[in-house]
Amino acid sequence: MQDKHMLMIPGPTPVPESVLLAMAKHPIGHRSGDFSQIIGEITENLKWLHQTQNDVLMLTTSGTGAMEAGIINFLSAGDRVLVGNNGKFGERWGKISRAFGLEVEEITAEWGKPLDPEAFKTKLEADTDKSIKAVIITHSETSTGVLNDLQTINSYVKAHGEALIMVDAVTSLGAVNVPMDEWGLDMVASGSQKGYMIPPGLGFVAVGPKAWKAYETATLPKFYLDLGAYKKATDKSSSPFTPPVNLMYGLQVALEMMKAEGLEAMFTRHQRLTQATRAAVKGLGLSPFAADEVASYAVTAVMPSTVEAEAIRSTMKKEFDIALAGGQDHLKGKIFRIGHLGFVSERDVLTAIAALEATLQKLGHQGATSGAGIAAASQVFKS
């Protein structure tokens, strides 16, 4: 049926109707007083979302662009950095760092497993000459559905004293608690098509005072992604370059929706959606790829053993017009991923699980009693 497409992937995520309608408005001049007021309101609400009194800057880019901006604004060629790599995105930050001439040491874990905070502690404590300039961490590793222990790793970075903590919070911001000021995070990057509930096109970089101090001596080349220019403009409720006006209309409404729900309620909702999805997957005789105690609140990865992952995805799309995400790199064709991030409700999860069960039956999966997935999810939702 036309116009019944349902996104159950970790990004882009579903967009509320009120946000879509806001984006349909006629654009206004981005240098006008009216638009300046919008930027000012958005900036204050972004600070609320990040739980910070420091700067939160908007860039016309993706989450990858936001992370690149963080790396090039606060570091110099030859700087030694530790990069956590337990999935596609941790791997990406290592590649970006090398592209800009940084001296990269990776702390790795098998895909589907969390990073070991003690490995960071060992490296940081051994660095008596304070040559490590930054630790770069993916909080929620979207490729595998793992939530890394940012708080503990950050505590070791703080004990080091010199290194910055740079955080990819692309699929954790808005889903799980990331209290920037309380934890003393130096740089937090995110992207609009995730927990923000708007389409792709905006990246966000939150910057703490220690990172700004590093900015003063950082020498990597930058122009369009020079965060100093964004801070100067944002302080005047403006933008250094032409912003995506209509996306920002949508962001204004989405942030209002998030504030109305409240931080704790948002985090609780994502936790319940995660628990229900994982319970349902198990009820259907499948196994989540990551362990319960390290589960991402954004996405649940599943490695089926009796049915091909791509057959599940293609049947879900063809029969029910529901999009699930696939695996990446060596996990391509081996896992599928169910997104439950942003504008997702209990009804969405129940719908996706019912369709998944019908798909599994159609493909000959024999691992579950009829209705077991919905029953397991419902048990979580009623508690």
Would you summarize the structure shown here?
With 383 residues, the chain is an alpha/beta fold. It has helices spanning 17-23, 33-50, 63-74, 88-99, 117-126, 150-160, 180-183, 209-215, 227-234, 245-261, 263-283, 309-320, 346-362, 372-382; strands at 6-8, 55-59, 80-85, 103-108, 132-138, 140-141, 146-147, 164-168, 187-191, 203-207, 299-302, 322-326, 336-339. Helix 2 (33-50) packs across helix 10 (245-261), helix 5 (117-126) runs parallel beside helix 6 and helix 12 crosses helix 13.
Broad CATH class of the largest domain? Alpha Beta
Widest sheet: strand ordering: 2-10-9-8-5-3-4
| Dominant shape | globular
CATH architecture of the largest domain: 3-Layer(aba) Sandwich
Unreliable segments of 5+ consecutive residues: none
Roughly what percent helix?
Answer: 40-55%
Give the SSE string. Answer: EHHEHEHEHEEEHEHEEHHHHEHEEHH
| Total number of distinct structural domains | 2
Largest sheet: 7 strands, mixed
CATH homology-level superfamily of the largest domain: Type I PLP-dependent aspartate aminotransferase-like (Major domain)
What's the number of helices? 14
Q: State the end-to-end distance.
A: 34 Å
